[in-house]
Structure formats: C-alpha cells, structure tokens
C-alpha cells in the first residue's frame, strides 16, 4: 500500500504520517524543504519506508516534475492526502504570476491529483482534501477564479478552501465510476504552524486564538479516520468534521461551478507549462 501526502513536515500532516506509518509499505512525501523532511523521517524506526521528493506547491513546474516522478516510480497510489496549505498575504504572487494562496492551497494540489489519477485508479484509491470550515466565508467570483483582484487574506483563504471541496466533489463526479473515492474535511481549530506566513494582523489573531485550539494529533484524527475506514462505510464526495459526515455550503455541490473551476484550473496549468 502506497501513501502520498503533502505538508508532512509540520502540524496535522506530520501527525497524520505518525498515525498512518504502520499501515503503508511506502510513504511518499512531496515537500518543499527536503532537509527538514529527511530529519523527520530519520526519527522513524524504518526511514526506508519513506521517499522524500522536492516539490514546492507554489510552483506548478515543480509540482509537475515531482508528480511525474511519483507517477512513474509507483504503479499504484492507494491514498493521496492533499494536506499542505495555509493563509498567506493576499497581495503575494508566485514566480509564475499566480496568487500564492490559490497556487499552494488549490492549483498545485489540483495538478498533483491529475498527475496521479491513473495510479489512483489502478489501486481504486482514495483522495483526501484537507479543507476548512473557513470555506463558509469563501466566495465564487466567476470572472476572477484565480484571485487576481485585490481582496483580503481571510476571504482568499475561505475561497481556496471552498475550491478544495468543489474539487473533491468534481473528481468524485468525474472519476468515481473508475473506483476512486474522494473526501474533504475540516480538521478542527488546531495548534500548528498555521498562519506563520500570514500578514502581521492575521498572525496576531491566530496566535491569540491558538490558546483555545486542539493538538495537532487530535487535528489529524479525521484524516486518519478517512484513511483507515473501509470505503463502504464512507460517502465518496462527502465532507467530514470530527469523523462525521457534515453539510458544506450548498455552492460546493453545484456541478456548474465545479466544472468551471476544473476547466479554469486545467487552462492555467496549460498556460504555465506550455
Ligand atoms: N491549523 C488549523 O487550525 C487548520 C484549520 C482548518 C484547516 N487547516 C488546514 O490544514 C492543513 C495543514 O495545516 P497545518 O495546520 O498543519 O499547518 P502547518 O503546521 O503550517 O503545516 C503546513 C504544511 O504545508 C507545507 N507547505 C506550506 N507551503 C508549501 C509549499 N509552497 N509547498 C509545499 N509544502 C508547503 C508546510 O511545509 P513547511 O514545513 O516547509 O513549512 C507544512 O508541512 C492546511 O491545508 C490548512 O489549511 C488547518
């Protein structure tokens, strides 16, 4: 059994690999900081179980290279957890000219998932998108899906977390018949490095709120639950909080919006890689 998980070098992702470690033969970690990842895997009893690959989600070219390498090396991927993410200043742009939050939280994972689709299909695998209850403040600006227009970081964060649910639902609609199952989740309000790259005001709000947050181990529980529970006991395309099926906002179920975001995302990837 092969697991691919992003954002494994900190917080929820790190606790997720700690819990899932015994259940997988190979754990593939696409990470932006290879040195940090190697230090982490060396803490495990059997570091050979891990394969760390450099991948910066803010660069589609980097995701393309890493995704292709994973796809060519491992015939089957049983589980992909799109976990990395965070809140970033709304005026921050990537080298490829994308809004940073859009690239890291949505487009990078969108491309990685597409590159691993045939491997996931062969394994009749699962895809988990770590979203957030912040999706409820997300807005769909049809003419600005790439979040180029001036906005604020919380609104952009809510929107990209809504994109995670829209994408999970659309992959379920499109590829569910091929045997792939998809899930999205809110991990809770979790004490992690979340917010470390946000602007000063957001950082201050987040660090105060952290007094009331749950531990990273607890925050990983819903990801671990979805990974370990047989598909027959889960709802593909479902949104989970505290290991229970919940209702995300109705917009996330709108097939027209899902398809619009999917087509827009494919076009952006094509533009960057052409
Ligand atoms: N914490 C919460 O209260 C909360 C609530 C709802 C949802 N979430 C979601 O939970 C997920 C995990 O967040 P967390 O709380 O565990 O935060 P975290 O401790 O800050 O971990 C974020 C992870 O994402 C990685 N990452 C960030 N930018 C990246 C990039 N450009 N390329 C590759 N990897 C990158 C980080 O790598 P480095 O180690 O290199 O920094 C780190 O491993 C996120 O999607 C977040 O939106 C968190």
Quick recap of the structure?
With 274 residues, the protein is α/β, with parallel strands linked by helices. The chain is 43% helix and 14% strand. The site of NADP nicotinamide-adenine-dinucleotide phosphate (NAP) has 28 residues, from helix 1.
List the helices and strands and how they pair.
Layout: E1 2-5, H1 11-20, E2 26-31, H2 34-41, E3 50-54, H3 60-73, E4 79-82, H4 100-115, H5 117-122, E5 126-130, H6 153-175, E6 181-186, H7 200-209, H8 216-219, H9 221-228, E7 238-241, E8 244-246, H10 255-273
Parallel strand pairs: 1-2, 1-4, 2-3, 4-5, 5-6, 6-7
Antiparallel strand pairs: 7-8
Helix pairs in contact: 3-4, 4-6, 6-10
This protein binds NADP nicotinamide-adenine-dinucleotide phosphate.
NADP nicotinamide-adenine-dinucleotide phosphate binds next to α1.
**Assigned CATH architecture:** 3-Layer(aba) Sandwich
**What is the CATH topology assignment?**
Rossmann fold
Write down the domain tally.
1
In spatial order, strands of the major sheet run 3-2-1-4-5-6-7-8
Strand content: 5-15%
CATH hierarchy class name: Alpha Beta
Q: Report helical residue fraction.
A: 40-55%
The multimeric state of the shown protein is single chain
Terminus-to-terminus distance: 34 Å
Strands, total number: 8
User: Can you count the helices?
Assistant: 10
